[in-house]
Structures are given as structure tokens and as C-alpha cells.
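sry for the spam today, last one i promise. C-alpha cells for design, 232 residues
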């Protein structure tokens, strides 16, 4: 009877063929082509001298990349391990490797007042992204209300990076003097007599008012870098 390592190694070769190359499988499962090659070729571990084995976490990530059920990598399969597909016009998307906490608007409003960045588990949910350029302070917020409709709807999830400076036309999250957070389009409007930048926070829905930093206290918390939208 084959060991779990042998079964996983056989299924790894099937997965590579399925994805088209080891590099594509590595990218989709959030690892390196070198790691895939080491497992496939039974490269000896530098510490133990035994062939490198695939761990449970990597097996599950490959299953996600392939779009198969959990445990598929641990089972022996026949000559057709994947069901025939009539019109396969999609491929597995790369699995995000960076966890980003989803926080409340109240937490976002007080973000500049905390000393340590959020850790996974601090929010009420976690999202994953493959954008490794996001700062350690990045967080997610859920859209509420219709001020940014029709482009953005309630339930859409925003990825926000507080370390990025806004440019004209960027979408941003900002807070007012009461630590309430809002999501709007950023529009600079020059400088005041004290050299402070004046900017507007513009809704996409004309039924809602534009906010101005020279009329009320507004602080940009971060730039929206990505949006996860619901289709239904």
C-alpha cells in the first residue's frame, strides 16, 4: 500500500499536467516552483536527508488551486482523476497568501490612534490577497449605504492601505471629527492660507453631499486598493 507521501507525489504530477506547468501550479497555490520541483523529484531535505514531503497545508492549497474537494491530494485516482468538462473557459485563480483583517468602521475611525497593526483574528473576518505591496497596516471594510452607487453596493468589501498617499481620483476611506468612517472619491482643491491641503470627498451618487476638509474636520485613513464585489 502506498504511503501518503507517495500518493501526494503522484497527484502532484497530475496537478502539474492539469495546470500546464509546475510554475503555474506554484503561482496558483502560493508557493515557489523550486518547492514543487523538490517535492516532485524527491530532493533530500538538508536536515534529515530524507526526500522532501508535502505538508498538509500545501496539499490543501493545491486542492484549492485545482478546484477539487479537500482531501483529493491524499487519495488514489483512476486514469481520469478530473471529470470531463464540456467548455472549460476558466482556470483556478491564485490563492491569496496575505491575510487582511476585516474591521468595523469604528475601528477604522480610530486607526491612527492605535500603536500596533492589526493581526489576523482582530477583525470579525479575514480576507486573503496576493498583493504583497500592501503595508502591515492594511485592513478591509464593508460598504454600507448607497452613496457610492451604482459602482459600489452594500456588501462590497474594500481593501485599504493607510500607508499610501491619495492621488486625484483615488477612492479613499476617511474619518470625521467624531471618528466616523466614510468611503468616497478623493478630489484635491488646493491649499488654504496656512498651507494645509483642502480636499473634497465626493460621492458617486448625486443624491448625497460632497464633503470638504475646509468645512469640517476630515482625515484620510487610507487608499482603497482593491474591491471584492458581490454579484448576487
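last one done:
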Amino acid at each position: 500500500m502506498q504511503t501518503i507521501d507517495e500518493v501526494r507525489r503522484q497527484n502532484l504530477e497530475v496537478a502539474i499536467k492539469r495546470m500546464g506547468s509546475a510554475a503555474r501550479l506554484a503561482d496558483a497555490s502560493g508557493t515557489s516552483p523550486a518547492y514543487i520541483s523538490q517535492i516532485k523529484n524527491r530532493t533530500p531535505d538538508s536536515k534529515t536527508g530524507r526526500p522532501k514531503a508535502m505538508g498538509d497545508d500545501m496539499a490543501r492549497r493545491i486542492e484549492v488551486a485545482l478546484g477539487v474537494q479537500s482531501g483529493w491530494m491524499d487519495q488514489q485516482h483512476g486514469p481520469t482523476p478530473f471529470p470531463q468538462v464540456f467548455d472549460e473557459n476558466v482556470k483556478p485563480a491564485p490563492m491569496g497568501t496575505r491575510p487582511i483583517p476585516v474591521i468595523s468602521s469604528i475601528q477604522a475611525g480610530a486607526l491612527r490612534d492605535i500603536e500596533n497593526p492589526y493581526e489576523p483574528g482582530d477583525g470579525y473576518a479575514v480576507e486573503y490577497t496576493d498583493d504583497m505591496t500592501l503595508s502591515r497596516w492594511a485592513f478591509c471594510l464593508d460598504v454600507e449605504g448607497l452613496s457610492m452607487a451604482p459602482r459600489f453596493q452594500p456588501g462590497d468589501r474594500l481593501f485599504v492601505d493607510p500607508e499610501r498617499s491619495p492621488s486625484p481620483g483615488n477612492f479613499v476611506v476617511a474619518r470625521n471629527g467624531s471618528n466616523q468612517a466614510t468611503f468616497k472619491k478623493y478630489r484635491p482643491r488646493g491649499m488654504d492660507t496656512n498651507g494645509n491641503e483642502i480636499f473634497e470627498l465626493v460621492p458617486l451618487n448625486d443624491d448625497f453631499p460632497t464633503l470638504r476638509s475646509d468645512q469640517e474636520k476630515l482625515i484620510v485613513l487610507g487608499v482603497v486598493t482593491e474591491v471584492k464585489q458581490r454579484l448576487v
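Residues 4-74 form a domain with the 434 Repressor (Amino-terminal Domain) fold (CATH 1.10.260). ok im logging off now
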